[in-house]
Amino acid sequence: MQVSVVASLTGRQLLAVQASPTWGPQDLLRRLPGRAAADDCRRRIFWGATELSSACSLGDLGVTDGARLSLVVSRPLHVLTASGDGAARIWSAPSGECLRTLRGHDGSVLSAAFSPTATRW
């Protein structure tokens, strides 16, 4: 069966592939190009409102030839903390790992925030 995977917000086609009804989400995700395939993001594929999970296949969901599947990509959740030692820290919420320590204050850091566009730490 021929299926298309589109970016959920833009509707831009990312992948058109001849798929097997036995394929699950990993089979489709492995074929995604470039940034859509990046490991630092969470990726989920939907057919309508139903998420394609590892427990089911395209055929299990009733996906048919010509179907358009939606890809939802989300950045991993980060937590920003401030502390009395003059540093702010960025943590990975899923792993609990400290990703970066921001230093430079003489006194306590009383608050911290991400930039609205998430382009600066």
From TrEMBL:
SUPFAM superfamilies, alphabetized: WD40 repeat-like
Domain of life assignment: Eukaryota
The protein, known as: Ubiquitin-like domain-containing protein
Species the sequence originates in: Prorocentrum cordatum
